Here is the input.
Amino acid sequence: MKPPADTKTVLRYGPGDWAAAGRRKRVVRSLSLLAVATVGLILFIIVIGDLRRHERAFALAEAYIVQVSQRVGRQHALPLNLAFQVDEKPGESIAARPKLEWLSRYEALLLRRSDRRVLAAHTQPILRRVMTDGRVVVFFEKGVFSSDWISLGTFERFVTAQTEEFERLERFEAAENAMVEDPPP
Here is the structure.
């Protein structure tokens, strides 16, 4: 039989209904906690991967710095031959190792005259998922090699400044050579 139209339906909770509502709250709370923990774990794994790429590039730069620092000599001049092979570690994949790009012999010869900090080498861009992308660079200043992490934008500014310095030194050397080749009459 159908209830009359003016009748209101009232839901009443009894002790069994309260227990079901409590179970639903615990399930929702557990699922929320599980989702937050999963997101945290994924973020932690991503950050660890970023840090490992960063550390691997610095370790490579430091290995090169140790070997190339032996070539500085008493004059504390920038060595002309910077590109050389660093010994591989056992079990290390050559493809996984970050590569350093060094100055050429001619660039190093010209930049020996520079009184600025010389960008002697750099890795390929190291793209990180959470942190700022950048490169590990090796600088030469006052007879000492050092490595540093710089962002991609800062790297472009360093390269532009060094290219301008290189061109200035190249013009200066060309002018000196022209003076030597053309003696006054």
Helices lie at 15-69, 105-111, 152-181. Residues 49 and 64 are 23 Å apart (CA to CA).
